Amino acid sequence: MKRILFAALLCTSTYCTAQETTSDSKKYEPYVNQLGYNLGESKRFVCYGAENDTPFHIINTTTSKVVFEGKMLNNEGWFSEFEPKEAQDEFVIKVDGHGSSVPFLVADHLMETASSKLAYDFFVDARGFDDLSTYDMAAVYGGGPTRDGGAYGLETIFEILQYASNPALFDNWKSELGDKKVADLIELILWHAEFAYKYVDYNGPVKKRHGTLGYQGQPRMTYDYWNTLDQLAAVCAAYHSFLKPYLDEETYQKYRKVCLDNWEAYDRHKVVRFWTYSTKWVDEGFQEFNEMGNAYGQSVFRNLFMYESERHEKDGSPEKYLKWAQSGASDIIKNWDFNNPRHMWWIRNAEHITPQALAYFLLLAPEKAPEGTKEKLEGWALHIKQKSNNFWKYRKHSETEWAHSKTKELGGAPALGGSMFAIAHLLNDPDLRALGWAQTDFVFGVNPVGTHLSNKSDARVKIGGYWKGVEKGWPQSHPHGYGELGSVRGTLDGSPLDSQFPIAEKIDAIEGKNEGRVFGKNAYATEGWGVSNRGWQATLTFSTLGSHNLKVFDGDFKDEISSVKSGQNITVQLNAALNIDRNAIDKGWVMLQSGQKSEKIPLAETGINTGVFTSKFKIPKNLDVNYLELSYGFLGFEKKLKLDVQH
Q1: What is the pTM of this model?
Q2: What DSSP designation does 220 have?
Q3: Of 202-216, 263-277, 457-471, which gets the smallest average pLDDT?
Q4: pLDDT above 70 covers what percent of the chain?
Q5: pLDDT for 472 beyond 70
Q6: Do 285 and 277 form a contact (C-beta atoms < 8 A)?
Q7: Rounded to whole angstroms, how far apart are CA atoms 344 and 357?
Q8: Nearest CA to 308 among 318, 296, 300?
């Protein structure tokens, strides 16, 4: 059904042309998501040149048996109905006359569990200096905290959102940072918080950057220190939800005070336009919005975080931050022009901020969001479906151009999936969610080059910095560059240019030799960049919105319940992206809130590879509250259940 629905949508488009449907003389093999596909989600592949109704077969590589069959339509094959129980087995797709794909898995929350650690590992590895006491801003390209990026990278915001979306997952990894007792992702957040505080008014030299900062006609900034407050605001919000056990109150109040003292002086209370002057060849000059300091929607994120922090303070002033957040959201609702490339793909790696910030308002404080918020997101969803109306499910630039002719689009597909996931959740739009999965497939090989967008170098494989099971990486890399990211785990390196669409010719692998920009038959790779990986991190974060689920059953695990009695036995069930080891029973937890008291209830997977986590729990006796609240996740990502207490 999904295959037919998308094909019908496709052929209503002006893009349903002979160029896209006519067979190429070369027989291209099926391009699949090389990692694999999530159970319960849409699944597709592309076999360019395969004529409509050409049969395809899915074969279990362990048993050599055909386990699913279908037919090609407009170069695509859909197999969303394929839900194998053999989560350990690999599969290949064979298209008659076109050969077979590389092997892939189909498993519970496969994309998230295989990618989430790599997503933040990138930011662990890419720091300019590990030790903040010896950090040398003048020696880091663009300043810090991430190499080849200034404070505009907003790493802390998206690290916090990533943890908030699936906290029990990150408790599995505690071996790299700090005292080895706290989740590495928490330690990384605290490191970035202290970096932001240390450089909150830094305006000294950096090694180099592409442009200057400040308003036109006014003195220019050397370093984008204004954006340190945006990152500290997220830390202040997280303090009240999950950072309190790891961040002492004195330090938190220090961070809070510097935000309160400088918020309006740094223009953090409003939407900032024409702030960055870029010397890059792709976006030279002043732009209304830019990826290097003033992303459209950034003001919504930062003011929502300050609102969330201040509403927990006795002397707080949450209303003024809420008003500023509402003003920023209203600006988006009124002025965000989907047909203006300077509001969309032109700002490349910052494009994902706008839809995600507006969507986040409805996640964190839905009753406070301005009128028209949901309708604006509906308009974006329609626009993006129209622009993605082709067999790659790639958001085209225009009627005549697939992608940019000269620059990487890592701000596109890797981050676009996250925007689609967030908005699909809010709109209850399964088609938009399916389109989001198509973006992740694009990252893992369903693209004109047929490879993952990260180069599979020996250096990355050696340090565990690559996706296990992905055979073909991006054919070129630029390991040195400004960020020196060749040996950084999880780095994305390139994306198809316009000349590679609708299908790329054979591309020779080149590592470290493409000094400058290589076009034509070569796959373009400049170098990794923190703001590119930030967008990928956001996709992994927002994907959980449509798949996490929390339920409560009676003690016999038979009937779902919504009320309890003192002393009653219950069974708590969580479905979440926690199944990281397909050979073992994994662990998780949920929070139980009883009045002012809260505690973690530990959960265990019901069996190997079930992806279902449960715990039997006895309701305390003599409760003096009218309800209990179970939850998983924080800061707008919570899955909550309210249990009425019968006295």
Answers
A1: 0.94
A2: P
A3: 202-216
A4: 92
A5: yes
A6: yes
A7: 14
A8: 318
